[in-house]
Amino acid sequence: MIYTVTLNPALDKTVEIPSLTVDSVNRITTMRTDPGGKGINVSKVIKKLGGESTAAGILGGNTGRAISLALEAMEIKTGFWFVEGETRTNLKVIDPVNHTNTDLNEPGITVSGEILEGLLQELLLEVNEGDIVVLSGSLPKGSPKDTYAAWVRALKKAGAKVILDADGELLAEGLKASPYLIKPNNHELSALMGEKLETPTELEKAARDLMEKYSIAKIVISMGGAGALYITEEETIYAKGLKVPVKSTVGAGDSVVAALAVAEESGKSLEDTVRLSTAAGAANVMCSGTQAAEYDTIKNLIPKVVFHKL
After folding, report:
1. Is 142 left (phi over 0), alpha (psi -120 to 50) or beta?
2. Which position among 8, 26, 129, 202 has the lowest Cβ density within 10 Å, counted as fewest Cβ atoms?
3. 148 - beta bridge partners?
């Protein structure tokens, strides 16, 4: 079973404004809303890939109820804790003329240590040996900086494989608990290592240093349109980015994580994992907002994935 954890979810409102102009009146041409937050996005893509997951996290208020109902309508199992306060609404502004994506994210609700611990203990009652747990995204106000590290340790003790998709201090702290897989992008990895990493060779070396230092089994490094690196103890594969029409880059990394989780659960080879995750990420950018791409779109892209071993 796959579990996704979104501790700071959001209702994503995506609008298109051609030729967005600051300090002026702008007209919205299209608008859509989606249940969002990185873990929730992962669960949506897992569903499209034919997999099953339980989306857990913290919700509050009418916005939280709207998110829960939307996921139920998608037939995604949920395990949310409802707390006082209002789940945030994030505004994503797409300018199709200037090809820009602008995010305006609300801070969200404040949680206590008791709430976080209660949700963790509830999740631990469900998780079994060999299950996959995806921890991803920002943390709500009130969360200790080592929250992900604590969760990784507890979930590993329960026998789960933990995928951690975070950045900055959250990633740095989480690494100390040795997650099974991490998926930084090239900029996040550069910030973590304190140096600018540009070439696949530089990125691979940094990743292997982390794998050795923190006993991490797998690292996937996304490089935007330039592709991605897939690194295990035995080998490294570089996959080229697919050229597709871009509507929104929001959630592309979450689609990759979803494919990684599905591939891990089904025991796919590294080569098939590369094909599926590359296609899933590319299919996502062809969609508006944070909606998940249909499987037919992903399937049609799989044969176009080009990769080679380093």
Report:
1. left
2. 129
3. none
